Structures are given as C-alpha cells and as structure tokens.
Amino acid sequence: MFKPILKTFCAFCIAIAILLTFFPRQTLALEQPNLTEQFKLSSLIALTNSQLTFALPEPVDSARIKALNLWSTFYFVHQAQASNDSSAIPLRDSSNTPLGTKLSKKDWCTAALEGTVQVEDPTNVFKTYNFAKQGTTAQTNCSFPSLKPTVVRAINRSLFAPAKGPYGDGSGGFILVPYRTIAVDKTVIPLGTLIYIPDAKGKEIILPSGSKVKHDGYFLAADVGGAIKGNHIDTFLGITDKNPFAYVKSIATPTFKAFVIKDSVIENKLKTLHQE
Fold this sequence. Notes:
The chain is of the alpha+beta class and about 280 residues long. It is built from four helices and 14 strands. The protein has helices at about 10-20, 105-115, 150-155, 265-275, and strands at about 65-75, 80, 90, 100-105, 115-120, 125-135, 160, 180-185, 195, 205, 210-215, 220-225, 230-235, 255-260. The protein has a six-stranded mixed barrel. A hairpin with a 5-residue loop joins strand 10 and strand 11.
C-alpha cells in the first residue's frame, strides 16, 4: 500500500506532494508512468453490473448525523503484464520469497508506488497483489525524481501479498471497491462509516465493465493510509487513473461538504459489497 503521488501538475501541488510522500496509500502522482494501455478484464473481476450499482436514494435530513469538510486525492489499481525477460523483477512476499510473478522494472516500480497491482499472465489469467510491508533489502532501483530519496529507498524495498479482493484489499477486513471505497484517517472517520458526498451525486462514472452510470453519492470508509490525516480522504477509482469527480482536486483547499450517514440498510449494502 505504498501510494505517494498526487494527481496534479502545478508547481504548488508539487510542493504539497513532497510533504506527503513518506507513507503507504498516499496519493501523489507526479512521476506516474503512462497508464493508457488497457488490459481486457477476466473472470477475476467478480463485481458485475448487478452487484456494482449506484441507485441508492438520497439520504433524508435526519440520517445526516454529522457534517464534514473534506479534501480528497485518488488512487487506483495498476495493471501490468507478467514478464519473463531476464531483467524482470519478481514480486516477493513478506518473507522475501518469490510469489511466482515477475514484472518489468517500470511495472514493478509503479506497483510499489500504487500499492496494488493486477497482473495478467501469459494464459490471460489475472492475479491481484497488495503491498504487504517494507523489507530490509532493495528489490530494484526505482526512479522518481520528485520524491525524497528516503521515500524512493522505501519503495525499492516493497514486498507484496496476494490480494483477497479482485481490486485489492483495504483495511479492517474490507476489500477495495471501485468508486465506493475511500481511505480515511480512522481517528476522524472510523472504518465502516457510511459517507455521503453531495457533489458526487449524478456524476457519470465508467465501471470496469465499460458501462456508464451516474453515482449516487455514497462511499464507505474501508481503507487507511499513512498520509491520510485529518480531513483528507483518498477515493478509490478501480482500474482507471481518470478522475471523474470535480471536487477531487488533490489539494487541501478548497474543501467540499460531506455527511456521516446513519442508515443501517444502505450501510449494510455497502459493507456487504466490501466483503471478500
């Protein structure tokens, strides 16, 4: 879960990005490699259109138990193809044992940066891996000029684990769900909290299947991150790096309005969706 790059290109944002680059699940994306290449989906993508729906009713005023002023970055799953090239780098588990999958240096470094990678092997089967921890030995020498050397050295020591969810794993036993998961500071927004963002309602999103739907505004706090502090949240987009939400600006100002929602029916629906 090592994700230190904000999606922005202005000089001001670069300064902010450098300040937020030391821990996993930190969204700063200035040195992000080109992610335009798309890979076909497979049966591993378990969330079908019937499961990943966005037609929940707008919350009544009495269900909006707390108002929040938030700012957001975003993160996503890096997709890569397994490599048998002699220079390919193996993904290793927490005990430094190879997991049986090798990536090009570019893909390995991006996987370590984003925290989750979905790998297509030569038989067109997808496997998803999550950042597990930082080891003691560098696996390679990644290059991210905008990041501090200490951060790059930590990225180079990334170790992985097979993910339980098709899009990767969050925290607290939750899996990641595109356009539903948000990473939070759990001392501010406890894991499992249902959040409604009015500015998200009605925004068109493209599901992993390619279908277009309008978002209903609901998210679940199902992940955390070292740089996600205070009123900062991180919105999970699934397999795309194209942010559809205008309010997600990857800078601390301006903030947007959100609400903690008390609705057991909707909360249970989203929690069920985040179960493996």
